[in-house]
Design a protein that fits this description.
2 copies of one chain form a homodimer. By secondary structure, the first copy, chain A, is an alpha/beta fold. Helices cover 47% and strands 16% of the residues of chain A. The first copy, chain A, has 2 domains: 1-118 and 285-315, Isopropylmalate Dehydrogenase, CATH 3.40.718; 119-278, Isopropylmalate Dehydrogenase (3-Layer(aba) Sandwich). In chain A, 55% of the residues are buried. Chains A, B: GO terms for molecular function: phosphate:acyl-[acyl carrier protein] acyltransferase activity.
Chain lengths: 332, 332
């Protein structure tokens, strides 16, 4: 199992990326880790020399504010693009990047390439839930407009991912909607609902936005626009509430004292709401495994992303998805 | 100014509806209040007999779990439908109901009727914001699918409402989107953006879901499906966080003590997040003013809805909207 890591992508690159890779190399001897990036900068960061870590030189870097499509097309020697090419050429089984999300989606599409039969790959992060299990939501921004058949493929791919990578037997797949009744929703969800009923998955019907946090499903299917609105409103509400709480709690010496007593509970809650805790987001529907690690990933987050990639590879995720998608597409 | 109140709609009807109407009658002698409902049940509730309150008999009631379209079509003598007919016939200038939302939207469409030039009326509640001002969001569920021209009309109507009813000069109108740049979004928002720039409103561009609570605009425009997801995820996140906080705060005697100290602050925050505080939601784009009061309205909420209706009527809201919509439509 060879995993290529974009050593230059992310707010804490390349230092944390290298540290995370070194920790992962020590933890799992059955994987080979390929650090893709500027050799001159990476070499001095290798504080140890595990046999299963190798530097692959890439001269340039895609920056956080680069325009995605332009950057991927022009910077052919960027660490992210080189890692993508290694996946396409079979030199790596997976790539991980904490860099520019738009550029990574473009690399997935233009460099790694779509899986046969998949029209639209999906960005599939975990949304935190109150029960701590989280829900895999897709699509959360790779494609703004979706057709019914795209959502059908999201449902299939998400279900397989949860089963293979998270070990959930029969993951509950829900359709994000404005009501629980089958005939609720817009044109898209009304068309998709009966199609999801026909799939070989555990479809639990419509799920309302207010129930997502309560953990009412393991996979949540939606178009990229709505998914993005959902994720950002969850994040925004949590963020706004915490900042007002902070204000209220620092009003006087006795509220400060009381807040100090409650701090462990508040910290638990904040951690529960932190989607960084849930590891990288897979880009599903590509000709290889591509994982997006959070932009502010530290060494532990990178190590976790490697763990996730290793589990996915061990369970032959991509091949399973390809078989299922092939079966569903040809069965039409 | 004659305001018809569906006396039988809402969780606390008819008692609280009557109490609210009596309070409003005392507060404002320049309005006439028409209590529409079962005379035999309403008569005994009239603890005082103000000259500006009158009962209008309606034999039946639309229940919370009635199927909207069927109920409005069949129960022609239901209090909600009778109130709607009074608006259509010019016997009332406005109607207020705390009853079944779907049935009220249907009453608006089928009984009151659409305003000339308006294709899709919009349900326009206030979403609470951290600065306490709130944002009028439309559409939040009247129409699941929207065309660009619908969103253009939502923007116009919402802007006029905020100016006339809430006294905000040049309300800031935002388009709910996945990024702030002009070219972001799905097909719908990309098409709408340049159209909103051409309107005689203060268009502030795209607004992301995470910034809505921070009060970054006064009017938020979106299609009904996305709006519904946004509102429910705001409510759901706030609700889930409060329930986990409660759990954390009652872990032991000392966390309970600390929580008691912080209670006033928490209550302020909870009140800030309570959309009932913001009064009724207008259904905009109809041939008369229709206000949806919250289902759990108490007497004060009904009185507030009457206040809101009175302000709208004083500022000739419906006529202003009709003129603007006419101007924009004919100007094409």
């Amino acid at each position: 199992m060879r995993i290529a890591i974009d050593a230059m992508g992310g707010d804490n690159a390349p230092e944390c990326n290298v540290q995370g890779v070194l920790a992962a190399a020590q933890a799992w001897s059955d994987i080979e880790l390929l650090l893709v990036g500027d050799e001159a900068r990476l070499e001095p960061l290798l504080t140890s020399r595990p046999a299963n870590v190798r530097i692959v030189h890439a001269a340039s870097t895609i920056e956080a504010d680069d325009e995605p499509v332009k950057a991927v097309r022009r910077k052919k020697d960027a660490s992210m693009v080189v890692a993508g090419r290694m996946v396409r050429e079979g030199e790596a089984d997976c790539m991980i990047s904490a860099g520019n999300t738009g550029a990574l989606m473009t690399t997935g599409l233009l460099v790694v390439g779509r899986m046969a039969g998949v029209e639209r790959p999906a960005l599939s992060p975990m949304i935190p839930t109150m029960d701590g299990r989280g829900v895999l939501a897709l699509d959360l921004g790779a494609n703004m407009d979706a057709k019914p058949e795209h959502l059908v493929q999201y449902a299939l791919m998400g279900s397989i991912y949860r089963e293979k990578v998270h070990g959930i037997p029969k993951p509950r797949v829900g359709l994000l909607n404005v009501g629980t009744e089958a005939m609720k929703g817009n044109e898209l969800t009304k068309q998709v609902y009966p199609m999801l009923e026909q799939l070989p998955i555990h479809f639990v019907g419509n799920v309302e936005a207010r129930d997502v946090l309560e953990g009412s499903c393991d996979v949540l299917v939606c178009d990229g626009f709505v998914g993005n609105v959902l994720l950002k409103s969850l994040e925004g509400t949590a963020g706004s509430l915490f900042s007002v709480l902070k204000q209220e709690f620092t009003r006087s010496w006795y509220t400060k004292l009381a807040a100090a007593v409650l701090m462990p509970g508040l910290k638990r809650l904040k951690k529960m709401m932190d989607y960084k805790e849930h590891g990288g987001a897979p880009l599903l529907g590509l000709n290889g495994l591509v994982l997006k690690a959070h932009g502010s990933s530290d060494a532990r987050a990178i190590e976790n992303a490697v763990r996730q990639a290793r589990t996915a590879l061990q369970h032959d995720l991509i091949h399973t998805i390809a078989t299922e998608i092939g079966g569903t597409t040809s069965g039409k």
